[in-house]
């Protein structure tokens, strides 16, 4: 196993597929999983094997083909020797090396050659495991309706918590999709001197800006002309139907006769747009709607492809209005793909806070918690920056750790405080990332004092020294699967069948980081990484430092998708 081929990074999905192919043999050629194969039904190859993740199960297996699956393939679930041989001799690009396999009561269990996997993954610092498994192309516009003027530019004091959730989600999605290779732009462009920009910057959000005196009038005029000449415009002979809401504002009595109207229902029916609200009717076009469309045109102006994808990240309360805007844009002649990422509400039982009040509350609680823990040290610019980042981490994890379609309930009682301990959210994640920095700072000081030598290359180490169950768990559950997790948001945009709504597992990175932090914390509390400076202990220490160094970079990569810089010391 020491000479395992180094063609491509080890991945979970190719390994599961290869195991399925080895188990099914000729059955892999059956086109329909529901067809009879002899007297047996071929099961779905994606369900033949399961990757284990719990510490308990990983003590004796890494992959399992359950007995129920074996019974569908073989009489009495007995795996033929030739099939077992295929499983045990599994090799290939990106496939985890197999060390052993056996049929037990729960099914066929397979164990990976762990030392070989450690060496393969940790070589070159596990760089390839922090990248998406494939690069993608395309232009993506992330449109955040909460930031558009209605008719005035929003302020932190007018933003609701539900709207703040959509802004943070758009920011996170942009970072994820850009990492996959998409050219990402954000909409709308905001005045650079607005209070809103300063507010967003305090959360680590770099939103596009323009000078205060900048206007988008030329594009607005073109949009207005396009709508006036649109085949979906309602003429006077078609009047009498009830407007559907005017693109965000109710039509005033005095403008009913003169206002420009567009029949949105005809647009989505005749253009074949799926998933739009059937109650969309005639829309009265207002100035803020035209401004919104002109901003979308601006955001797509620099796309290098003919058709971009616009992802409207909106709250459930604003979904209907955003559907109006989307269909109105289509009526103006835009042919870009449009999808809607809809967020559930944010609830604060017993309180009503604006986004500004919520951020101020969390910042005050973070400062108070830091002062209680560190006392008079908490002063100066360095601590101001730490408190700002930790507040941003708290807010992001509170609003982004839940499935985006589900409601979020916040505890905003002023006496509640923000805990700096316990396996909860952003503070816990940032604290454990800082522990890794502290570990390596301690190691570097030991090197300077002559206690430890420099860390050798992976090829010079014996990874059989990594026997602690937490070590394999950190590699198998986090380092190896991370790149495939990065792929998922882009894949979801492609695989939703073209409906208006798109469902993306936007909560996964936050949950991944919290889970990683729990398992790392448990391991770090049990294991003394920097041992006595004795030569016979160095191999194990260096193996652990390679693992934890890769883990530190994994933290940085995942936090970067949330625009959270790591804090070196807490």
> Strand count, sense and closure of the main sheet?
4 strands, antiparallel
Shape: globular
Helix content: 40-55%
First-last Cα distance: 41 Å
Number of strands: 16
As residue ranges, the low-confidence spans are 1-6, 27-42, 248-255
Task: Decide which structural class fits the backbone.
Answer: alpha/beta
Number of helices: 18
In the sheet with the most strands, the strands line up as 3-4-6-5
Could you tell me the radius of gyration in angstroms?
28 Å
Kindly state the mean pLDDT as a whole number?
87
Strand content: 5-15%
Short description:
By secondary structure, this protein is α/β, with parallel strands linked by helices.
Overview of this structure, please?
Helix 13 crosses helix 14. The model is unreliable at 1-6, 27-42 and 248-255 (pLDDT under 50). Helix 11 links the parallel strand 13 and strand 14. The two termini are 41 Å apart. The longest helix has 26 residues, at 535-560. The chain is 43% helix and 11% strand. It has 18 helices and 16 strands. A four-stranded antiparallel β-sheet has the order 3-4-6-5. With 570 residues, the chain is an alpha/beta fold.
């Amino acid at each position: 196993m020491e000479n395992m081929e180094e063609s491509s990074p080890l991945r979970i999905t190719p390994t599961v597929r290869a195991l399925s192919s080895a188990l099914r043999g000729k059955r892999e050629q059956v086109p329909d999983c529901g067809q009879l194969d002899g007297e047996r039904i071929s099961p779905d190859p994606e369900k033949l094997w399961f990757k284990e993740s719990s510490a308990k199960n990983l003590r004796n297996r890494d992959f399992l083909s359950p007995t129920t699956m074996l019974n569908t393939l073989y009489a009495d679930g007995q795996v033929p020797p030739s099939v077992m041989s295929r499983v045990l001799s599994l090799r290939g690009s990106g496939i985890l090396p197999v060390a052993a396999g056996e049929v037990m009561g729960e099914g066929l269990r397979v164990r990976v050659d762990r030392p070989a996997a450690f060496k393969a993954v940790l070589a070159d610092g596990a760089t390839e495991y922090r990248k998406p498994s494939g690069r993608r192309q395309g232009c993506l516009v992330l449109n955040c309706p909460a930031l558009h003027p209605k008719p005035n530019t929003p302020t932190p004091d007018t933003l609701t918590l539900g709207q703040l959730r959509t802004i943070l989600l758009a920011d996170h999605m942009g970072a994820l999709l850009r990492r996959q290779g998409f050219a990402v732009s954000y909409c709308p462009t905001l005045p650079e001197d607005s209070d809103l920009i300063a507010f967003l910057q305090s959360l680590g959000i770099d939103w596009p800006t323009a000078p205060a005196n900048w206007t988008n009038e030329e594009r607005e005029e073109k949009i207005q002309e396009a709508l006036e000449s649109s085949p979906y415009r309602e003429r006077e002979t078609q009047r009498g139907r009830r407007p559907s809401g005017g693109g965000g504002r109710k039509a005033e009595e005095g403008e009913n006769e003169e206002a420009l109207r567009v029949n949105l229902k005809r647009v989505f029916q005749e253009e074949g747009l799926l998933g739009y609200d059937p109650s969309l009717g005639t829309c009265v076009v207002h100035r803020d709607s035209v401004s919104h469309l002109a901003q979308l045109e601006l955001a797509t102006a620099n796309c290098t492809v003919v058709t971009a994808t616009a992802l409207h990240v909106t709250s459930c309360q604003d979904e209907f209005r955003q559907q109006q805007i989307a269909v109105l844009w289509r009526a103006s002649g835009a042919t870009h793909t449009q999808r809607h990422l809809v967020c559930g509400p944010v609830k604060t039982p017993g309180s009503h806070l604006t986004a500004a009040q919520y951020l101020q509350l969390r910042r005050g609680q973070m400062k108070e918690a830091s002062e209680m823990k560190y006392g008079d040290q908490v002063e100066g610019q360095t601590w101001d920056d730490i408190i700002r980042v930790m507040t941003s981490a708290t807010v992001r994890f509170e609003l982004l750790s839940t499935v985006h379609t589900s409601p979020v309930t916040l505890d905003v009682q002023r006496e509640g405080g923000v805990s700096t301990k316990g396996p909860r959210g952003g503070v816990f994640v940032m604290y454990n990332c800082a522990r890794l920095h502290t570990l390596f700072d301690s190691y570097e000081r030991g090197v300077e004092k002559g206690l430890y030598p420099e860390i050798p290359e992976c090829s010079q180490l014996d990874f059989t020294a990594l026997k602690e169950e937490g070590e394999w768990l950190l590699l198998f559950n986090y380092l190896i699967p991370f790149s495939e997790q990065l792929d998922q948001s882009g894949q979801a945009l492609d695989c939703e069948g073209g409906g208006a709504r798109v469902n993306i597992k936007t909560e996964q990175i936050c949950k991944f980081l919290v889970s990683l932090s729990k398992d790392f914390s448990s391991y770090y509390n049990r294991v003394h990484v920097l041992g006595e400076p004795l030569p016979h202990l160095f191999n194990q220490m260096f193996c652990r430092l390679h693992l934890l160094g890769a883990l530190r970079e994994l933290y940085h990569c995942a936090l970067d998708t949330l625009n959270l810089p790591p804090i070196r010391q807490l």
